[in-house]
What we know:
Blueprint: H1 2-5, H2 19-29, H3 36-57, H4 69-83, H5 101-106, H6 108-121, H7 128-141, H8 149-161, H9 167-180, H10 186-203, H11 212-236, H12 242-268, H13 272-285, H14 302-321, H15 329-332, H16 335-341, H17 350-364, H18 394-415, H19 422-439, H20 442-461, H21 468-489, H22 492-508, H23 514-517, H24 539-547, H25 566-570, H26 604-612, H27 614-633, H28 636-658, E1 661-663, E2 672-675, E3 686-689
Antiparallel strand pairs: 1-2, 2-3
Helix pairs in contact: 2-3, 2-4, 3-6, 4-6, 4-7, 7-9, 8-10, 9-10, 9-11, 10-12, 11-12, 11-13, 11-14, 12-14, 13-14, 13-16, 14-17, 17-19, 18-19, 18-20, 19-21, 20-21, 21-22, 22-24
Amino acid sequence: FVKFANIEEDTPSYHRRYDFFVSRFSAMCHSCDHDPEIQTEIRIAGIRGIQGVVRKTVNDELRATIWEPQHMDKIVPSLLFNMQKIEDIDSRTGPPSSPTGGEKEENPALLAENCFRELLGRATYGNMNNAVRPVFAHLDHHRLWDPNEFAVSCFKIIMYSIQAQYSHHVIQEILGHLDVRKRDSPRVRAGIIQVLLEAVAIAAKGSIGPTVLEVFNTLLKHLRISVDFELGDRRSSAGSATFSTSSKESDERIVQNAIIQTIGFFGSNLPDYQRSEIMMFIMGKVPVLGTTSQSLDTSHLGDLGTRRIQIMLLRSLLMVTSGYKATTITNALPPPFLDPLLSPSLMEDSELRQLVLEILHNLIDRHDNRAKLRGIRIIPDVSDLKIKRDKISRQDVSFMKKHGQQLYRHIYLGCKEEDNVQKNFELLFTSLALTTIELANEEVVIDLIRLAIALQDIAIINEDNLPMFNRCGVMALVAAYLNFLSQMIAVPAFCQHVSKVIETRSLEASYFLPETIFKDKCNLPKSLEKHEKNLFFLTNKIAESLGGSGYSVERLSVPYVPQVTDEDRLSRRKSIVDTVSIQVDILPGNNTEDKIDNTEEITFEALKKAIDNNGLEEQEKEKRRLVIEKFQKAPFEEIAAQCETKANLLHDRLAQILELTIRPPPSPSGTMTITAGHAHYQSVPVYEMKFPDLCVY
């Protein structure tokens, strides 16, 4: 038959069929004769027969019956059955090998492998799936997903043998099989995902096709399913044996780690334009409080499940962003990506905050300086680090004007968390340093100094009742950063002030320095109130030193206050006072006696009135959002000027309408008393309003 198969025919015979030969040769491949030599000979004869059928029929496009499922379901498992006998797995992982003629004749496994490669190499667009699907059936039937060494080697052979433009077909088939086996044991699912990783690793070098988002979408869906299974096992086995529970949980962690590794590897091999889309896609799946994005449904998982999903997705995002070099920071951190990344919902846990900061480092650090800044410390000479930097581009300056306050706010709030550990402070220091290197012009430098002084005030005033370790950690962070910043901008007077404070601390309060506070055994002070001013960085000294070098230091006298977002009012975390939404209503006769009971009877008219008011409420909500957005993104000077103008208009208008008599305040920051009278009222109520120096709300 082999000799017959090798004969080249000028005209194909359309009536000839090979069903009988396929069946007989496939049966010979599974020979189980008692004599090993005869068994081997029969199996070799069966494999050579299948090879002859393939060569005789596969090249004729008009007679493609060999690719029909009923034939492939016999041929492919027969070849795989013999390939399992190869002892050296590594021999099958690379491109096609060239064994000698003697090995081909004597070894059924090598002969089967070469026949399998030849079959796949001849597969075309229309019959690729028919050749791959029997592989899944064979691996399922023989339970070869756990352990999955043979499954991995099979798909390496497939990916290296097929034409590169058909790679996405194989990836789609693996994804489909993963969906089919989603209820199987964690180790089986992990085995399939590892096979997908190997296939993606080979396909990423060539054409991936239209399956990019499908790969990520399927993997993220299975990530949620795995977390669901893990928490379900934990709930169902509450009170039962702890061994089985921990075993199941650890198996699900294997699945989750395999998914994250696959996402990261796939994403890091994509071109930049596709990688930015994948970053947006993954970030859109992260559950963030108060958003209506297409995030993964975690409503039934509870707080613990939501946190697990957040950590898994951020770990995936961290791997995708690794090595990403955007030309401008706007491309790396567009608003639809930055806003959810810096969301307060992702600040409720120490590990989440660490992941967010590491993702920011990947995207901000465009000159690979992060490794030089690893670890929080007082750097004696920054020039020894050989920091690489370019001139700040116009796009980066524009980005900091629009979104700089978001970055400052995230760092500020991150320092106030009670569960911070040393790694959090190290990452916060790196964030400040990278912002200085990559994004800081003179205006940003002033903002960063204001932020550092505000962080110092957190530790000194301690309105949030932070533990003493956290307060000293913040002081050490400020010292390490101002030491770095002063050397980067190279203003001698500023460097001298910072060095003097650090030297004084090393003698009198070493727990304010990172080298001391982050040691295992560090003696903490009982309070910070009794410390002298020479241990602190002083705004007036810094302003004086920078003013002499041409910096515009007027804004240094304005304390830094973090901006407030809509999410702060929705968040479960302790919120900041929303200074933007404060309103002063002057209502005559606003006495406690005039207050009426707020409870009213619910009637049809009341409900109708409430429904009619919905449109007004939406308008008010949009108006508030625009006001808050303006205070977040508009330049400080513009806001100050506008508020001052409004204050003057308000003053004149009140005087006209209410016939006010105003007594001037004794000092610019004093209290102004306004007496308001009306011709129709006998009693004259008196209101006292405190006017800030700059703004009136």
